[in-house]
Structures are given as structure tokens and as C-alpha cells.
């Protein structure tokens, strides 16, 4: 039986069911969350604008520093979502709790360091950015409060990422809605005063933001700690911290760099466009802001792919991740085409709503004909980048984004400016986006080439026909090919077992629902995934060893040369557990005696298996 109060596992809710519905269920709340975030920023800007030009200018000076800290935090959030989603997909509940806890510690440590540095250097820093006199004093007034409350920013952002990793996008949306509501109520009260509350001016805007953060801080901690049981309330070991932080930062650092590219590229592009006059700059500014609104849905879909792909990649459901990417690309291309037709057709009306200057109108019309034509390609880059982040290939994600916004866009725009003026800049940016999308698609195809090509187990592999399995699936015959073929043949007839190519050089064994039980490499290493308690017992009994490359995960290794019987027994055990889990998810319970019949399971191992199965089930298991 499950111990009362024991942490319940975070179930991989995204590894089964309709892919389109799952992505919609994630993307729609994220879209609304983005809208609420925009609303908060607009509310702040509106109320501060009522104070005067100095206050509005002071707030503008804070944007680069705020965006730097936000970029670092959002990057850590992507890394957190990716790592936790993969752990959930692999069924490693202990690792899920550890990663969540260690992500929060990492986030607070980094943001506290940045905030402390900001407090110590803010006068010098904002002077270098051009603030002076009364405006500089207003900046210091605002940012002192902002820096002191920075820790309350990182917990909600990383916490929301961890919650989304479970497949729940609605709770983070509700948290964001609450923050927007609190911020909107506190802004006028603290800025202008109400009754006994004095008017605090720009400091009041900072305090209103801090109040909203405190709400999200408490809400995120309550959801993670009390509802989802995803936090470990104990001092972590240094070795575990290092392992978790490595997993998070391997995606988090490139993701943070990607976030920082956009403002850098925007600054360079604006300077280039400024050489063509104020009307060109004004048109570029309007077009860029409209682009952000038009692409909310594709960007939300990109964010939805991180938990979806992460869970399915961790569960080795590569077929589902590939199909999700196909659906996402199809959607964003259709969305982009629709946006282009709308803006190109009604560009004149849209331009008139933003400016009465005929020169701005003309440039905006050119913008609407050229740049939106590549919105679909822009979104393809985003969804492929999100996929690479989810599968821990974040460097490629950063390279794709850098090509689109900086490495290709700046040189091509500069060439276009020289050859054709402002039209050439727009064409250069569009070409950079198209080329980046083509490269992104090629890299995505390479990622999935050879992944999870499952063949039906009913196609028997007879021993006398060896080495058909090792050569046709793995592609290269080795001195262990005979062992691999005998292993494959020994597993024929297992109900629900599928055998097929799992990686470039491995044969995979898949249970009900397509979940991978394990895979054997052409070198003869059999890697298997077991729940942590079962894994510990198998390691303690000397039947397997910890995986040679993957730290702190559900994977163990068995060498085929140690004995074919041991390999067969372990795979049968993994298959039995996969069937039990599938049965529990459908019926709420399982017959463990029947599932383990005929397997070499001692008393201690059986107790561990029973405890694991009980944790999967809301009801007592049949024993």
C-alpha cells in the first residue's frame, strides 16, 4: 500500500491520446497567458505615462536590464521544462522531484547574484545607458525595488515551467491571470494614492509589480509543494545538484542566449533602417509590434511543444514527437499564409490606424507585402527550435534562431540596403527567415532519421535466418550479432511486445502504448529503463549496473556476454511491468501475481515492484 502522505508520481499525461488535442490543450492557455503578460506591461506603461515624460523615460531606461534578467530566467525556465518533461516521460518520479527542487535553487542563486550585482552597480550602469539628472534618480528609485524583489520573479517562472512539464498549462495561466489582476488593481492605488495610501509615483509601480510577484510566488510554491508533491524538502547533496544543474543548464544557457538575440538584432536592424529616414523607423516599429501580436498563436504552440516533446522523448515515443512537429509545422504555415493575405490586402487600412503620415503609410505597405510572407517560415524556425530544446539539443536551437535574427539577417539586410534601400532590407530579412526555416527542417529530419522505426513482433526472426535482425535493423554486423539475433528470437511470442529500430545503431523493445522497455546496441550493451525502486534492487543484486553515460536516471545496463538468459529475463521483467502499468492506467489496478508468473523475482524485488505498482494505482493492487 502507498504510505499516507507519500509523494505521488507525476504521470506522463502527454504520451497517449490525440496529439492535436494535447497540443491545443497546452497552446491555448499559453496564448492567453501571453495576452495577460502583454496586458500587465501595457497597464504599467499607461499608468506611468500619466505621471509625466521623465517617469516614462525612466521606465524605458530600465527595459534593457530587466530584459537581461528576464532572458536568463526564461532560459532557465525552458531548461527546467525540458529536463522535467523528459524525466516524467521516462517514469522517473524521484528525478522529477529532484530536478524541480534543484531548478528552483539554481534560479534563485543566479537571479540573486544578478540582482545583487545590479544593486551595487545600478547608478554607474544606467549612467552608461544615458540616464542623467532627475531621470537617473527615478530609474534608481524604480530598480532598487525591482532588484530587491527579483527572487520573487524566478520562482513563479521556473515553477510554471515545471507545472507545464506535467502537461498542465491551465494552472500557470490562472497564476498569470491572478498576477495581471493584482498588478492592475495595485498600479493606480500605489502610483496615485487612495485614501490613507500615499501617492508613491514610479516607486508605486515597482511595488505593484512586486505585489503581483508575491502572489505568483506563493501560488507556484503551493501547487508544486502541496498539490503536485514535486519539491523535496531536504538539503540536496552536492553531487546531485551538479547533475541536475548540468541537465537544466545544457538547455537553459543556449535558450537564454537565444532570448538575448532578439533585442540585439532589433537594435542593429533599427540602426540600419534609421539611415533611410524617420518614416522608415516608424514603419519598422509599427510592423515589428504587429508581428508580435500576429505570432502569439504560433509562439504559444512552440512553447507547448517543449513539454509535449519532452515527455514523449523521455518515454521514447519518437513517433509521437515526429507527428507533433509535423502538425505544428502545418498549422503555423497555414496561420502564416492567412496573416500575410490579411496584412497584404488590408495593409493600407492597418497603416492608417497607426499613423497619419503618408510616408509611413508607403513604407508600411511594403513591409506588409514582404515580411509577413515569411511569418510561416518564422514560426517553423520557432517550433523546430522548441523541439530541439525539448530533446536536449539546445545548441542547434540557438544556432537556428541566431541564423534567422542575426547571422543571416544582418548581412543580407545590409546587402539589400546597399542594393535597393528599405525594400532591400525587407527582402534581406525575408530571405534570412526562409533560409533558416529550410535549414531547421533539414536538421529536424536528421534528428528523426532512424528514430523509433518499430516493426511488428508478429514477424518472427528465426535463429537459422540470423543475422537478419542485427544487419537489417542495426545495419552493421559485429562479433555480437549472433547474440543479438538469439535475444530477439527468444522474445518472440510475448504478447504486446514490438521489436524495431530504436536509434541509429540499436534495436528497441517496446511494450504496450509504444513505451520503450530497453534497447540493445550493436556492441552488445542492453540498456533498460526501470522505476527507481526496482532499479535499486536490481543493481544491489548485481543483475545490472548503472548506465555508463546517463547520470541519475532510470537507465541501467546489462552486457549480453554476461549471459543471454539474464538479458531475456530482464526484458521479460520490463515487459511485465509495462503491461502492468498499462493495465493500471485503464482499470486502476493490476493482478501482480499473474504478471510476474514464471519470472525470477525474489521477495525483496517483489516488494519493491508491489510498492511501485501501488504508487501508480489509486486502488489497492491484487496480490
From TrEMBL:
InterPro entries linked: Luciferase_dom, MATE_fam, Membrane_Transporter-Flippase
Topology in membrane: Multi-pass membrane protein
Top-level division of the source organism's lineage: Bacteria
Location relative to the cell: Cell membrane
This protein's UniProt keywords: Cell membrane, Membrane, Transmembrane, Transmembrane helix, Transport
Every Luciferase domain range: 514-562
Residue ranges of the TM segments: 21-43, 63-87, 99-120, 140-162, 174-194, 200-224, 245-273, 293-310, 331-354, 366-391, 412-439
GO CC annotation terms, alphabetical: plasma membrane
A GO molecular-function annotation: antiporter activity
Protein name as it appears in the record: Multidrug export protein MepA
Lineage, opening ranks: Bacteria, Pseudomonadati, Myxococcota, Polyangia, Nannocystales
Amino acid at each position: 500500500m502507498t504510505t499516507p502522505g507519500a509523494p505521488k508520481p507525476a504521470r506522463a499525461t502527454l504520451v497517449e491520446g490525440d496529439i492535436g488535442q494535447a497540443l491545443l490543450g497546452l497552446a491555448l492557455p499559453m496564448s492567453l497567458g501571453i495576452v495577460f503578460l502583454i496586458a500587465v506591461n501595457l497597464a504599467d506603461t499607461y499608468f506611468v505615462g500619466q505621471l509625466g515624460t521623465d517617469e516614462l523615460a525612466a521606465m524605458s531606461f530600465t527595459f534593457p536590464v530587466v530584459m537581461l534578467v528576464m532572458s536568463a530566467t526564461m532560459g532557465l525556465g525552458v531548461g527546467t521544462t525540458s529536463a522535467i518533461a523528459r524525466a516524467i516521460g521516462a517514469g522517473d518520479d524521484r528525478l522529477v522531484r529532484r530536478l524541480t527542487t534543484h531548478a528552483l535553487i539554481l534560479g534563485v542563486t543566479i537571479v540573486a547574484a544578478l540582482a545583487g550585482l545590479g544593486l551595487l552597480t545600478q547608478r554607474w550602469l544606467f549612467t552608461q545607458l544615458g540616464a542623467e539628472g532627475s531621470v537617473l534618480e527615478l530609474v534608481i528609485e524604480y530598480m532598487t525595488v525591482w532588484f530587491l524583489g527579483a527572487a520573487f520573479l524566478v520562482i513563479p517562472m521556473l515553477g510554471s515551467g515545471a507545472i507545464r512539464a506535467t502537461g498542465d498549462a491551465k494552472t500557470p495561466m490562472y497564476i498569470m491571470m491572478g498576477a495581471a489582476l493584482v498588478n492592475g488593481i495595485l498600479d493606480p492605488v500605489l502610483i496615485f494614492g487612495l485614501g490613507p495610501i500615499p501617492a508613491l509615483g514610479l516607486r508605486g509601480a515597482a511595488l505593484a509589480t512586486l505585489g503581483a510577484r508575491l502572489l505568483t510566488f506563493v501560488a507556484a510554491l503551493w501547487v508544486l509543494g502541496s498539490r503536485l508533491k514535486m519539491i523535496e524538502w531536504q538539503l540536496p547533496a552536492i553531487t546531485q545538484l551538479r547533475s541536475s544543474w548540468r541537465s537544466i543548464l545544457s538547455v537553459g544557457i543556449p535558450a537564454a542566449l537565444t532570448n538575448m538575440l532578439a533585442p540585439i538584432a532589433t537594435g542593429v536592424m533599427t540602426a540600419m533602417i534609421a539611415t533611410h529616414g524617420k518614416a522608415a523607423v516608424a514603419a519598422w516599429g509599427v510592423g515589428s509590434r504587429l508581428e508580435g501580436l500576429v505570432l502569439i498563436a504560433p509562439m504559444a504552440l512552440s512553447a507547448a511543444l517543449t513539454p509535449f516533446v519532452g515527455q514523449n522523448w523521455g518515454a521514447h515515443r519518437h513517433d509521437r514527437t515526429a507527428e507533433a512537429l509535423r502538425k505544428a509545422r502545418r498549422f503555423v504555415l497555414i496561420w502564416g499564409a492567412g496573416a500575410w493575405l490579411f496584412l497584404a490586402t488590408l495593409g493600407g487600412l492597418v497603416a492608417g490606424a497607426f499613423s497619419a503620415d503618408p510616408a509611413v503609410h508607403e513604407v508600411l505597405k511594403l513591409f506588409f507585402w514582404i515580411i509577413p510572407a515569411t511569418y510561416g517560415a518564422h514560426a517553423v524556425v520557432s517550433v523546430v527550435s522548441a523541439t530541439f530544446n525539448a530533446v536536449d539539443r539546445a545548441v542547434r536551437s540557438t544556432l537556428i534562431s541566431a541564423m534567422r535574427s542575426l547571422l543571416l539577417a544582418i548581412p543580407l539586410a545590409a546587402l539589400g540596403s546597399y542594393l535597393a534601400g528599405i525594400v532591400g532590407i525587407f527582402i534581406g530579412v525575408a530571405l534570412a527567415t526562409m533560409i533558416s526555416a529550410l535549414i531547421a527542417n533539414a536538421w529536424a529530419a536528421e534528428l528523426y532519421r532512424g528514430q523509433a522505426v518499430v516493426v511488428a513482433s508478429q514477424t518472427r526472426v528465426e535463429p537459422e535466418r540470423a543475422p537478419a535482425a542485427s544487419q537489417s535493423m542495426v545495419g552493421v554486423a559485429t562479433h555480437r550479432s549472433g547474440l543479438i539475433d538469439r535475444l530477439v528470437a527468444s522474445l518472440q511470442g510475448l504478447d504486446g511486445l514490438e521489436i524495431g529500430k530504436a536509434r541509429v545503431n540499436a534495436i528497441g523493445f517496446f511494450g504496450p502504448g509504444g513505451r520503450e522497455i530497453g534497447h540493445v546496441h550493436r556492441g552488445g550493451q542492453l540498456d533498460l529503463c526501470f522505476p527507481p525502486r526496482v532499479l535499486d534492487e536490481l543493481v544491489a543484486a548485481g543483475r545490472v549496473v548503472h548506465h555508463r553515460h546517463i547520470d541519475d536516471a532510470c537507465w541501467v545496463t546489462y552486457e549480453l556476454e554476461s549471459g543471454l538468459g539474464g538479458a531475456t529475463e530482464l526484458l521479460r521483467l520490463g515487459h511485465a511491468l509495462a503491461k502492468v502499468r498499462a493495465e493500471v492506467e485503464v482499470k486502476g489496478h493490476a493482478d501482480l501475481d499473474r504478471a510476474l508468473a514464471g519470472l525470477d523475482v525474489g521477495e525483496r524485488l517483489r516488494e519493491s515492484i508491489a510498492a511501485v505498482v501501488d504508487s501508480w494505482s489509486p486502488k489497492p493492487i491484487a496480490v
